[in-house]
Design a protein that fits this description.
homotetramer, alpha/beta, seven-stranded mixed β-sheet, four-stranded antiparallel β-sheet, 14 helices
């Protein structure tokens, strides 16, 4: 069996296991005050060139989105997101559960457009009844998006400018951040990323960790008592070292980005294979997710040998399917895929 | 330095690290559908003699309490708990954040009393204005309690009977369940525990795991779509195997209870030492937490050599401090403590 | 000045004032147990031919929507509504504040379509990840809609059938119910309305009352302890008589429908006038709201003599404006409007 | 039958009915922008000597408490209240429904004590785990209290000083404010009341109005977009004039305080009668509620002629009952009560 279904179906990078074992007997305080977490934070600050950043480790992505968003909004505000945004689609209403509306904006290949955002917000404030409506209090985007696409630096700057104009913090969901920043089409240097937004998170779960995400408020701008809200949401590990050790490892010797690069180079090979095999692309992306159209009649047989993701119905006889590479995908996996397809 | 501050300040049992390494390369589906989770659930069902149990793995204790309680209550209901109950004191208002009141009952050594519970609930329904008040919708207790004490089988039966009479599910927080069930004073066989309540959780974090708790609905009585509510709360690991592998290991060859027994036997030695050293007990318990009274003047010096927990002010010149053993405490730790005190 | 801006800008029907005065000195219990509320409920049960109905009086429309919807949904469910539905647009996120998502469906003249609803819900359950998404737990529609349009009996039956098939209660927001049922285009007899849904509310505020709405669960199907949830939301008048007296008056001698008919007949005259004056209709409706297109250059002058509602920008030089009649609109008002336009 | 059960079992002051009738035909904008509301606000500002006050009219007391408290707290904060405070006892968990814990403080005759408050808050911040607990974010008291007692000016000043020291706004629930300020034992001039707190509400429902409460932020210190949060909670009347006309009437020619004085002088007569009849006082108060102890054997007979409130069980053969006067209580009512007891 070949596995291309998604990027979180195996364990973690061996280096992490090694570090967990090495540090296992070291007593350390809980709740993120352990030396591994402190070290990891320092490394992240350096990597992203934001020396004043407030950094927190949370247990998972949905949790992270809910805590960040609810802690930054006032009761009367909602969060603007692409209609394909993860918070509006596949998080079981976690944002609404905190009392806030997700305000959908049209998506273009999974991305929102700065001009459309501005038009939406300015129309909002121009409406005579705007105070009977949900205020756009912040903006959520994903990098890469749920469709594997990327914002350019200019696009992010334009969105951030609109956000600043209207007092809306910009939050970037980086569940797959490494795969975005290491894409050959990404024009954003790692050390310039943090200044393009007001808060972002570095995904661990999908980029080599067992679990955990790192929230970064780049300019020391965490909401007051963010720690207590993390606890209130149940997103705080008692053994904070679980995240500390993992992120410390990932941000040592550039491991996070090295393994991200692997996913990207394997995705390039994957695209070649899919083209050779004449699968029509529904969506060809610069990151680790590729979407092609397959005949329904072939799917059954294909599934016996390869695991992939079902994305959407295309038409009555075709389906959009997703192939994912990850930090763990090997040349051998691709070779075998080529033989199998 | 000697570490007796709490039971979650080191890593995890080496057997777990070993199993994480062994299984690391095995591809498995996410969200708890991995083979390790399925196997762990089967083992837990056998251990607790509840073959029909619904079992879910969540990322932490506060999270677990919030999900279980909010999913079992209707909007107009609250949860009854001892005034020392963890949900009412040290979870940053996580229960209230889900919209529900914690209804405090007097505590006796950390425990609630069945007769007082009955009296509270019957007085509630006898009140002419009860429908302007918060309905007692379920009961939360901890086993062991936050003070390290234990309910006897008869006490649990009595509480459960009151719960059943008034249609209130009984939820047992087992953050330290192993330390309770393995106490020499516990008169509840493991295989009879599940029938004494309507839902309980088996603590992993404080009993040898890196993270994770297992919620057990013993009679297949999970609320409908509990899975989606776990997701909604952000308590669902994408890599469900993280909990699966850990609990599968803990429930293989009785590991969970073996290491719990270690904490208990070490706690017995600890009590002996504290008595020899003539520390007055504030609270002598049958589990892994012991509370003694120390002179403030000595604390500073003691802290240089031993880490312990500050519990409460006793009087102007004394403080209640807590010593904890755990699955990892060794004979050598105790020997050195004896020499140090 | 002529007033056609909306249907809640004057006081209440004089008959209500009279009854408030007559009953003022009668001592009655609070919270809806007064004799006026009981009498009003009995009259509503008769009028709508639902002898077993549970009926509650709440203070306003947004409140009513929030209480009904949150009390009928489980945590993991959302409410389906037309994208123009009041709950999704002009209630400041009141539904999300209770933790539930509003799931938007395309609107056609303000209405949802049974086939589209079915297609949406069946696609939902067909999605492999449906338990990571928000369950469609109930359906909300307005009668008349926010655009003044009406569902036919067949349309309601079709929607209700889909709702029943998927276990989703159908809730009808009747903020302007009288204006809908008394429209000459309405093919639903009053006594058949209740059986077409699972819960509806009879709007008082916009149909002659000072305040208050009557929620009707036609088949005695109110959620358990609905009263306490009304109280919890702060929607319960201590002086329940305020609503009791008003609804008792409105449902005596057919007053509610008589005054509704006035709004409808005046709306017919209004349409005639608007047509004579050659205002292009943006939306010609069978109820009390009419939408026409006006030149921006004329608006300023018009506003000096007539109050109307601004609905939307039409194009750069035109605006959609709304004219409303109500139970209080007189022939004289229309005569003067004709002279003014 | 004689009515002393509570102060909201009749209609409203006739002057209000008269004003409702007089203004009924005047067209006015909705949502509180009507001329009556504007006039009422101006009069309240003058009466309470707070020219910069932000004032809002809401539909009822529970609603008001929920909106004020939730809009002034951050997610991690709770509200401190006497254990007998209305928000913690008889509002069906309305505060918790907004996500916030009510932090109970001991009560003394229904009041909290400044020193105990300070001790509670300072102990909170001294606790090493305070950020795992619910922050005391504001303080709620009632004036008069739920037991009819009053804070002295010095007591309020002391409480307010503690509040200011710890950054906790002080909110006074004035459901019966008139009865408090007009008590002969009250040492707070009306025009000095506002400076003693950060927000208060003037109760209408229990002091002569049909419904409605006026929230006052004395120093223009309303939370940003408070209006939208009122709407979000469903506490906003579309016909804002309902409150506007009522409060404008109540604050014309000192009506609010004149009718409050009536309740107080009648309560003085009531106390005399109860003493003559040798009812032991459970609680003798300076306001309109009096609590006496009655033999259970007499209650049945008494109830046939007089309505009163059941407060609490006193012992197996006695009950605490409450007698209330109000703005509408007459000399004749008391004469007849004297004859009846």
């Amino acid at each position: 069996m070949l596995y291309f279904e998604c990027d979180y179906n195996n364990g973690c990078h061996p280096e992490i296991l090694k570090k967990l074992a090495e540090t296992n007997d070291i007593y350390q305080p809980g709740y993120g005050y352990d030396c591994f977490s402190l070290s990891a934070k320092e490394k992240i600050r350096k990597t992203f060139a934001c020396p004043d950043a407030d950094i927190f480790f949370l247990c998972g992505g949905t949790q992270t989105n809910a805590v960040v968003i609810s802690s930054m909004l006032r009761d009367y505000q909602g969060v603007v997101a692409a209609e394909t945004g993860h918070i509006g689609t596949h998080e079981s209403g976690a944002i609404e559960y905190t009392g806030h509306k997700v305000l959908p904006l049209p998506q273009h290949d999974g991305k929102i457009d700065a001009a459309e955002l501005k038009s939406y917000v300015s129309a909002y404030y121009a409406d005579g009844n705007y105070d009977h409506m949900v205020f756009p209090g912040m903006v959520y985007i994903s990098f890469p998006t749920e469709l594997g696409t990327l914002y350019s630096k200019a696009e992010l700057q334009a969105i951030h400018a609109v956000c600043s104009e209207y007092g809306m913090p910009l939050f970037i969901d980086g569940a797959r951040l490494g795969y975005g920043l290491m894409s050959s089409e990404c024009d954003i240097p790692v050390e310039e990323f943090a200044e393009l937004c007001d808060v972002f998170y570095i995904g661990g779960t999908k980029v080599g960790a067992l679990c955990g995400e790192a929230v970064v408020f780049p300019r020391g701008n965490a909401p007051e008592h963010f720690f207590s809200m993390v606890k209130q949401h149940g997103a705080l590990f008692a053994k904070g070292r679980v995240c500390g050790v993992q992120f410390d490892t990932l941000f040592t010797d550039d491991l996070y980005f090295n393994i991200s690069r692997n996913a990207i180079s394997k995705a390039e090979s994957l695209k070649k294979i899919l083209k050779e095999k004449e699968y029509p692309f529904f969506f060809e992306t610069p990151t680790n997710q590729q979407f092609v159209i397959a005949e329904n009649s072939e799917l059954e047989k294909l599934r016996e040998k390869v695991s992939f993701g079902f994305w959407d119905k295309y038409d009555d006889s075709h389906t959009v399917i997703r192939f994912c590479t990850s930090w763990v995908t090997s040349d051998d996996d691709l070779l075998r895929l080529e033989e199998t397809l």
